[in-house]
Amino acid sequence: MKVILLGTAAGGGFPQWNCACALCVRAHRGELPARSQESVAVSGDGRDWWLLNASPDIRTQLLAAPALTPGPGPRDTPVRGVLLTDAEVDHALGLTVLRGGADLTVHAAPPVRDALTTGLPLRGLLDRYAPWEWRDSTVAGGFALSGGLTVTAHPVSAKAPKYVADPDPGVPWVVAYRIEDPATGGVLLYAPCLAVWPDGFDDLLASASCALLDGTFFSADELGSAVRTADAGQPLMGHLPVDGPGGSLTRLARHRRPRRIYTHLNNTNPLLDPGSAATETMRGAGAEVLPDGAELIV
Ligand code: MLT
Ligand code: MN
Ligand code: ZN
Known about the structure:
- By secondary structure, the protein is of the alpha/beta class.
- Helices cover 19% and strands 23% of the residues.
- The strands form two sheets. The chain has a seven-stranded mixed sheet. A seven-stranded mixed sheet has the order 7-8-9-10-11-12-13.
- Zinc ion (ZN) binds next to helix 1.
């Protein structure tokens, strides 16, 4: 399958519009590569493409990817729809950019679909532009995507978006997707939002050829030390750090097989700097960070 990393930054992008932290200042100066908010495109046949999350930057991201160019008919597009991992603003707001697109299908878990009907009421709005099909991505046995891919969704976290009032802590708000190309055996595990190392995640990783993983924060104290916000000192906003004893890098060390790529990088993350000690640590452990627009064959 073909995979394009359309954007690789967490909510707000890099640099973030209202941030003058050391890393954002270097990105403003052009010393570090800017990154748009996290979204991915996948295709089994190179003709039918599916978006994994739809960031507010999706217009620029689609225009920058030659494979996603519209045509041959005046309103034809290779984009067939969107798979949402969660209902976060940075993953869902791009749906409004796609409004009016013909015959799109959105796959989302029921709590995500409900949040986009009430707390962030995009569904009603989008229905007035074009009749999209909304499907439950957690359907038993998984589902098929045009172009030859098969998908299963796996609940990974109860992290609800900030805009949801009094979220039920028992609700699986976030899923990871396991996307398989039966023609080649390639398996992409897409998990850009991990609060903890989920039960069963090791088995998923063992069956994957490539994993795109939550790289929001490198270390557990990063948010507190980089910027002073109301979140300083609080748990890391539902994102498992890369480094440290319980971090994802240590958990990944048990696995030899999948190519492992961090995405959804927050603007405080030293992995944004290819010359940082954090980047050296990550590379030493066999993981990668790739630029926006990177194309992979999985
Ligand atoms: C997150 O991934 O934690 C959220 O997208 C944060 C945000 O709302 O920007
Ligand atoms: Mn996010
Ligand atoms: Zn910043």
